[in-house]
Specification:
about 110 residues; alpha+beta; four-stranded antiparallel sheet; 4 strands; about 35% helix
């Protein structure tokens, strides 16, 4: 399993648009074979940082999901929210391997 961690710098004045963007992508990840762990939005501290975490069975499964970018009308519509609103100023994507409580020895 791989988990994609997306670290966003967002425009705090456009948080509602970012939430619409996030809801669309959570649905798309789930429908295209991944598990979305949610978006984590500013609460206290920095008001311009957000995170998203989602997992796929493998990097190959993630790459299959990525084939829809720029092609699938639903992917394009979801990304249009970000582009038209300007809610995302910058983002970085990192892939991690989770260590989960279920991985602990008995």
């Amino acid at each position: 399993m791989i988990t994609c961690v997306v670290d966003y710098v967002i425009d705090p004045a456009k948080l509602e648009a970012f939430e619409r963007f996030g809801r669309r992508w959570m649905d798309l990840v789930e429908r295209h074979g991944g598990t979305h762990h949610g978006y984590f939005l500013p609460s206290e501290g920095a008001s311009d940082r957000a995170l998203a975490l989602f997992s796929f069975e493998s990097l190959a499964a993630y790459e299959q999901y990525r084939q829809g970018f720029g092609v699938d009308p639903e992917f394009i519509a979801a990304d249009r929210i970000r582009e038209e609103s300007g809610c995302v100023l910058r983002y970085d994507r990192t892939f991690m391997r989770p260590l989960l409580p279920s991985d602990l020895p008995n």
